[in-house]
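Board notes (copied after class):
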Amino acid sequence: MPIQSSAETASRPNVGLLGWYAVCTTEYLTKDAIYYFSMFNEPLVIFRDQNYKPKCVKDFCRHRGASFRGGDIKNGEIICPYHGARFTSSSVNGDNETITCTHIVDKAYKNFAKHVNLFQYPCIEKGDYIYIYYSGKAQTRLEDVKINTPVDHIQPEAYGFELEEKEYEQAFIDFKCDWSRIIENHLDILHIFWMHGNSLPGNEVNRKTIKSFNQTVHKDSKHLRSVYTEKDGSKDEFISQIFIPPGRVVIFKGATDKARYIQVLDHIPLSNNRARIIVRHYRAFMKNKLLCKLIMFKQRQLRTFYSIFSEDYLVLQTQTFNEQMGYMKQEKNMKLLSEDKMIKIFLDWHQNSLETDNPWDLHPTNSNTNKIHQDLLMEYPPANPHHANKIRQFFKYSVTYPMLSLLIIFVTIISLRYGPELISKTLENNILPSIELRN
């Protein structure tokens, strides 16, 4: 069965694995917070400077090479925990922006300090996301980082989505597996029926309703788009996906400007066998904030997120192992279905980008490399079992018990409001046995 028709052939996206990534969100980056992550093994830090602008620097103090972990943010300055070196953003007429040392030890090193600049990457805040342009070569001056594509190219709005009037829930998810396997997973709709049917609400998607679909794939220099439709043509498209390189996937149903829900998934290649996903679920319904709080809609959505990604986790880890062992050579061992067109095109793009950009060769590790950053990065479920257990306990006490309490309150209110009237009508109709009153 052919994977791709001649009508679907076009040039693949010209954006590779180096470029704009959404790596954090506005909600997570508060005034005095330090957000730690990495890109292709390179440890990085994001903080807000004195102007509340996000800054992304290499997690490497240029005095003695210490990490900023354990450090602090005060008045927009990031402080190294080793000797108290302070760094803040500065610029000359808005250009040549640097993150410069303003103090170390005492005034005797004032002249020394002003010549010490941190390595950094371009970092901007847009649409409640924090983006960095990752080139693999951090610079002390931002003007020395060559930006090949504008950040607007990866915005959902650039593809016709209207998000301003929609509410959303979001979650951070960590995996100990190869990040490309996760993107591949999110481009596969058939596994949703079989693997996640019991976790998803409704009866439309489950093991009993799994079936094949027609699939059309559109490609241009910026993205890949896949549309799945019913084979009998009786319904509109079942679902659509957009892959926006290097790491964003958008999943939705219906026209882009009328979709009731839109899921945006950002995939971050932290390090070897380490990846983070930022999942955000936009919706055009349940917009009443008070009602959402009463029924704990956010907590219920998070529970669904964590349940689904936990179900995927073992498969993703074993796929990573099989790929690293060479078992998943497409031509020899992999037999793709007709619905796997998008996956095939993605894998071709990914392999070409690996060969062109060589991102894992920019900051390579080996068996002797200390794994401290890799280990500390796994903060969120399902990779962090301790956190996953805390999440389960949170749902147990914060969702189940309050919902039970609300149910009891509701029944009590109904009883007080309508109980006497029902009893009176029942007695009048002689449904209850008469009771002789005695003095």
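Comment from the instructor: The CA atoms of residues 306 and 381 lie 7 Å apart. The longest strand covers residues 261-271.
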